[in-house]
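If your schedule permits, I should be very grateful for your opinion on a structural question. Thank you for your consideration; the sequence and its tokens are set out here:

===
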Amino acid sequence: MALVNSSFDPAVELDIVLLTASATIRVFDMNGEEDVVHAGRSDGPYRHFTLPMVEPWSMRLVVNNSDE
């Protein structure tokens, strides 16, 4: 999933909810740097992930670790 912060403010503690059995996702910034994010809680088949800060007018690529 591609995510864009099209704001002049940083996106802090951005919570996304994904339908996944995976306990982790990988988040890539615009420089190709990777962060591994662990699920905070589950809501039925959905998992909540809190992303690292997304700077203004920048993009992130969120990849599900489906091999778990």
Summary: DSSP finds no helices and seven strands in the chain. The chain has a mean pLDDT of 94. Residues 2-64 form one domain. Residues 40 and 59 are 22 Å apart (CA to CA).
